[in-house]
Amino acid sequence: MSKAASWSWRLAAAEVRDARHVHDGPEVVGGPAKPKDTKRWCKGKVGREHVLTVTIMSRYGLWAELVRHCSACGKEFDSCNTHWRSWRSHKPDWVTPDLLRQLQIADAKLKNTRKKSA
């Protein structure tokens, strides 16, 4: 291969590489993305309301807690355990006497399993 042929090949490659990095200017896109409003809407989608349910969950295997959460996205809104008197001045309005009984039973089961394992 002659020197002129190799030179033109190198020039062509350099021009192709340079052309890859040429821009017409910055792309104009609408402003920065707005954060989703997950407090009000489920998964941040406007118009989709949270589906609130109350379930009993064990926390770290140490105590049971009533948790009010969205069954669709899993976001937790509020919780209440058997010792709510110690850290709250009032019981939440969504806690019914039936739920409190179920919570006390679940908490007692957890305490029994801890005593057996110890």
SSE arrangement:
Layout lengths: L2 H18 L31 E8 L3 E8 L5 E6 L2 H4 L9 H21 L1
Antiparallel strand pairs: 1-2, 2-3
What does this structure look like?
The chain is of the alpha+beta class. It is elongated, with a radius of gyration of 31 Å. It has a three-stranded antiparallel sheet, with helices on one face. The model has no long low-confidence stretch (mean pLDDT 80). It has helices at 3-20, 84-87, 97-117, and strands spanning 52-59, 63-70, 76-81. The chain contains three helices and three strands; from the N terminus they run αβββαα. It has a domain at 50-117.
Instruction: Report on the biggest sheet.
Output: 3 strands, antiparallel
Round the Cα radius of gyration to an integer and report it: 31 Å
Distance between the termini: 84 Å
Helix content: 25-40%
- The structural class is alpha+beta
Number of strands: 3
Ranges where pLDDT stays below 50 over 5 or more residues in a row are none
Q: Indicate the overall shape.
A: elongated
Number of helical elements:
3
Strand content: 15-25%
Properties at a glance:
3 helices; 118 residues; three-stranded antiparallel sheet; 3 strands; alpha+beta
Offer a concise description of the structure.
The chain has 118 residues and is of the alpha+beta class. 36% of the residues lie in helices and 19% in strands. A 3-stranded antiparallel beta sheet has the order 1-2-3, covered by helices on one side.
